[in-house]
Amino acid sequence: MKNADLTDLKGKDLVAALDFRKLPKVLLHEHLDGGLRPSTVIELARENGYTGLPTEDAGELAAWFHRGAQRGNLPEYLEGFAHTCGVMQTEEALERVAYEFMEDMKEDGVVYAEVRFAPLLHTEGGLTQDEAVRAALAGLRRGEKDFGVKWGLIICALRHLNTSLEAAELAIRWREAGVVGFDLAGGESGFPPKKHVDAFHAIQRANFHITIHAGEAFGVESIWQALQYCGAHRLGHATRLRDDMEVQSDGSLKLGSLAQYVLDRRVPLEMCLYSNLHTGACHDLAQHPFGLFFRNGFRVCLNTDDRLMSDTTMTKETILAAELFDLSLADVEKLNLNAIKSAFAPFDKRIDIIFNSIKPGYAALRGE
Ligand code: HPA
Ligand code: ZN
After folding, report:
1. Residue 196, ligand 1, Cβ within 6 A
2. 185 lines ligand 1 (CB under 6 A)
């Protein structure tokens, strides 16, 4: 097939014609403790005397994580993190996981990645939260040297705890070393973002960046609070924003005021298709609101969330979206431009990645 023909292909035909792994991709939403290689979990457990794993066979362990995470609700989805965090309690372990993350990104065709974690979950073995952040940053830096992938680290606070201000201050303290923003993660139901408003105000006063998991396991109210109480610059998932819009009988879309605000303000939506299926945020991927949001101009991007638990990669997410929503190569490029425009990296770095990596990458595929 001549390259120029690729521009006419869509969906399954595009997937059949192209190696999606090679497409330049941008990932904004992945958890460091949700993306370990099964073999690494086992090796780290051995090295650190962690005895809680259900099996020491890498294939069985991968299947165990996938099964556990795919029970259709967020609390059970999150149970597997006890084991991944259990083996990430030393600086060496955190450095290694961060380094391998970068190697995996290179393999997956990702040119810029933001990865997040909650340092508080890595202090059981005696590390301080600052040591945990330093170790993750060291692994990411070493990974960039070896694999050339650009990155940023996001610090997560946990919505069921009252330590979010401390996490916000930690994020701000490390901003010169590669931390690019702050997130609120964990079980959503019963833990509204506005309870953490002090932490978000600290981030705002520091002129820093906010993304919040919202509208995944809870509805529009959570998204509204994330934006209007907490000042979120991006939203993680936001699947339930669908509840604030209505497809009318003539096919046109009627938006509620929140959805209109998200569209008008170009609020980036970090969507995670497989994860949403696994947590029950969506029951049928063909009906996932990603398609509706994308076709109506919302600033959406594709993400993995937890590569281990959801058995996914950026390549798989992109193939899935292309097949389900009949995407063209221009659509895939647009999604990755949406992502890099929404990254928390400084403007100059984003421009560099757009014009020296993403645009030339897609132009070359089209034979330009
Ligand atoms: N939601 C909230 N917290 C999380 C998730 C998620 O999908 N994945 C890892 N931590
Ligand atoms: Zn997430």
Report:
1. no
2. yes
Tell me the C-alpha distance between 58 and 38, whole Å: 5
Q: Does 169 participate in catalysis according to the annotation? A: no
Dist. CA 336–CA 322, nearest whole Å:
13
Neighbours of 15 (CB within 10 A): 17
The reported pLDDT for the residue numbered 295 is 97
- How far is residue 213's CA from residue 132's CA, in Å, rounded to a whole number? 22
User: According to the model, what pLDDT value does residue 190 have?
Assistant: 92
Q: Which residues of the chain have pLDDT under 70?
A: 1-4
Nearest C-alpha neighbor of 268 from the set 114, 150, 164: 114
Residue 275 near ligand 1, beta carbon < 6 Å: yes
Instruction: Point out the catalytic residue in the list 95, 144, 216, 270.
Output: 216
Paired residues of 156 in beta bridges: 183
Domains of the chain: 3-365 (3.20.20.140)
Q: Using one digit for the tens of pLDDT, what is the confidence trace for 293-348?
A: 999 999 999 999 999 999 999 999 999 999 999 999 999 999 999 999 999 999 99
Who contacts 337 (Cβ-Cβ below 8 Å, separation ≥6)? 354, 358
